[in-house]
């Protein structure tokens, strides 16, 4: 019995590892059959752990939240800056586009639950950075949800659009990196003075 449980845990871990890699490497959602092939496990084994791709996506997201909470702890303890943490969060959202797509297929209340949890996890280091003067004081934790949504929309281009960008000499990855830096620089820059008030 213990051996079976140990095998089940190892299989689940292998599936999640391969799924995480697949969600990062491919621009499209990888089917469960392909996940099974990459892990070297039978389809029945994969489906026993995850009956559909949304169940698998939910498990990968749970793994992500575990890593996120560890990163938040490091930030709260001064071992990592909030800018570094936020950059990792935004880069993960961009690189794991298929996962974002799957989560977008969930019912609105389920999507809201994940967004609420994400903001709740990021709020403590957000407020800490703001109190330390590292983060501009006119933004709120809930603004992060808007930033992530806009970044997702900005990087969600189809093959035809990508070809057009490349045809004029554009590099998608380089452009995304610049966009991330623009967003981060804006968040961590001093806010503009109110209308009618001169800048110091």
List the helices and strands and how they pair.
Elements: H1 2-25, H2 32-39, H3 43-49, H4 53-76, H5 82-95, H6 97-103, H7 108-131, H8 143-155, H9 159-167, H10 172-187
Helix pairs in contact: 1-2, 2-3, 4-7
What count of domains describes the coordinates?
2
The geometry reads as globular
Regions with pLDDT < 50 over 5+ consecutive residues? none
The largest sheet, given as strand count, sense and whether it forms a barrel, is: none
Distance between the ends: 71 Å
The CATH class assignment of the largest domain is: Mainly Alpha
Strand proportion: under 5%
- The total of helices stands at 10
CATH architecture of the largest domain: Orthogonal Bundle
Secondary-structure-derived class:
mainly alpha
Q: What name does the CATH topology of the largest domain carry? A: Tetracycline Repressor, domain 2
Mean pLDDT: 85
Give the total of beta strands.
0
Order of helices and strands: HHHHHHHHHH
Name the descriptors.
Tetracycline Repressor, domain 2, DNA-binding transcription factor activity, globular, 10 helices, 200 residues, mainly alpha, Arc Repressor Mutant, subunit A, single chain, DNA-binding, transcription, Homeodomain-like_sf
